[in-house]
Specification:
The protein folds into two domains: 180 residues, MFS general substrate transporter like domains (Growth Hormone, Chain: A), CATH 1.20.1250; 177 residues, Growth Hormone, Chain: A, CATH 1.20.1250. It contains 17 helices and no strands. With 423 residues, the chain is mainly α. It is 74% helix and 0% strand. The protein is globular and about 50 Å long. α12 packs antiparallel against α17. InterPro entries: MFS, MFS_dom, MFS_trans_sf, MFS_Transporter. Belongs to the major facilitator superfamily. Pfam families: MFS_1. Keywords: Membrane, Transmembrane, Transmembrane helix, Transport. One of its GO terms (cellular component) is plasma membrane.
Length: 423
């Protein structure tokens, strides 16, 4: 099949393209101008954005795999290295507040290259034998990852228009598969005697290559603001705040299951320390499979329908994971939950950018802020409840978040149908 020709955007500002003739909002039922309406183009711009998110997925998941050997190398307490993952959430919060200004000042291509350089440098420092240097590395990795989280959705939205949800799902799929490879690479490096550092840093050549060839040629929007007597365009998918709440719920669900499922297997089924992370990887595997198949799925069904179906699948999988007395059934449930959870974040993120079509950088920065809040609060809340009452009770936070997201999506869908009927 021949892919449609896609114009280069070397001289276009980063802005929205299509608007509804009545409201000024992007029409959710018609293609945007300049967007590919049939097949998804995977050109140099798209691959640059995909690769940056894949590098982030590898290094972030790999950081969890190296904490124990890093602790032994530094001769410190577990609390000293357990602090590193929290810096990622803190960096997301900072970028959510300041990242938009960076892209406005530097442009998207320079920010993306800076983000990848920061991640690569941070990963290198994490493998040193100095605690201050490793802490600096964790901060740099978090900062670079946070910038990547902002640049990728905004860039894919501008470059692909109505196909952006499918592109985001593909990018997330690549990141999920990279996340699966990280602990395997670290384990293989340790087993073969070359050292865990080699397994963690194996992705650095790709990062260095991306710094040189990354192509994200858009510049900050210079479009004039609306005249004082005109109303600003209405958002396409509800208010930006409402869509950011959806991102917060989706990220909260994903990270609760990703961070605490290994501990759940240990407590509920008494598996070994080696078996627990392997079983927990079934969740990431399920997400990777669904995201890899997301392009035809999002092309045939409306985003709201896919979101509701994903919530239902995740809820069924969680119920099996949480309630099954047998280890095998519980593991199957976690895998099924991963299949459902996979599309929650890409769809929610795409709608955040669509909610502010004239300022995708602003929308992506606010999504990064919501992500940081979710990563910092949801897993911690589950852990606190688990310590006080019990792990099974704490895990009930997950279906509560799923129910909230499903109800919000159903309500939004009903409002959308009412608006369509009134036109």
């Amino acid at each position: 099949m021949t892919l449609p020709r896609h114009e280069e955007h070397t001289s276009r500002p980063l802005r929205a393209t299509a608007s509804n003739s009545r409201t000024g909002a992007a029409d959710p039922t018609t293609p945007e101008r300049g967007a590919a309406t049939s097949a998804l183009t995977r050109d140099r711009v798209t691959l640059s954005l995909y690769a940056s998110l894949g590098i982030l997925g590898y290094l972030l998941t790999g950081m969890g795999a190296i904490l124990i050997p890093l602790q032994e190398q530094l001769h410190v307490e577990r609390a000293a290295v357990a602090f590193y993952p929290t810096t990622f959430a803190a960096s997301l919060l900072v970028v959510g507040l300041a990242g938009e200004r960076l892209t406005a000042r530097w442009g998207h291509q320079l920010v993306l290259r800076t983000a990848v350089l920061s991640m690569a440098g941070g990963a290198g420092l994490l493998t040193t034998s100095s605690w201050p240097l490793t802490l600096t590395g964790a901060l740099l990795l978090g900062a670079g990852g946070a910038l990547t989280v902002q640049i990728v959705p905004a860039g894919l939205h501008v470059h692909h228009g109505k196909r952006a949800p499918a592109a985001l799902a593909e990018a997330s799929a690549l990141s999920s598969f990279a996340s699966l490879l990280a602990p395997l690479a670290v384990a293989t490096a340790i087993a073969t005697g070359v050292g865990w550092q080699a397994g963690y840093l194996v992705v650095l050549p790709l990062a260095l290559l991306l710094i040189g060839v990354a192509k994200v040629p858009w510049k900050p929007s210079s479009a004039p603001s609306s005249p004082p007597d005109e109303h600003p365009p209405l958002p396409a998918a509800g208010s930006l705040l409402q869509r950011c709440i959806d991102v917060l719920l989706a990220i909260g669900i994903e990270f609760c299951l990703m961070l605490w499922s290994a501990d759940a297997f240990t407590q509920w089924h008494h598996v070994s320390a080696a078996q627990a992370p392997a079983l927990a990887a079934l969740f990431v595997l399920g997400m990777a499979i669904t995201r890899a198949a997301a392009t035809p799925l999002t092309a045939r069904c409306s985003p709201r329908a896919v979101m509701l179906g994903a919530c239902a699948t995740a809820s069924l999988g969680f119920l099996l994971f949480w309630a099954a007395p047998a280890l095998v059934l519980s593991a199957v449930g976690l895998f099924l939950a991963g299949l459902g959870v996979a599309l929650l974040y890409p769809l929610a993120l795409a709608r955040v950018v669509q909610a502010s079509p004239e300022a995708p950088d602003h929308a992506a920065a606010r999504a990064a802020l919501a992500s940081g809040l979710a990563i910092g609060l949801a897993p911690l809340t589950l852990a606190v409840i688990g310590d006080q009452i019990g792990q099974r009770v704490g895990y009930l936070l997950v279906p509560a978040l799923l129910a909230a997201l499903a109800l919000r999506t159903a309500r939004d869908s009903a409002q959308h149908h009412v608006q369509d009927s009134a036109r």
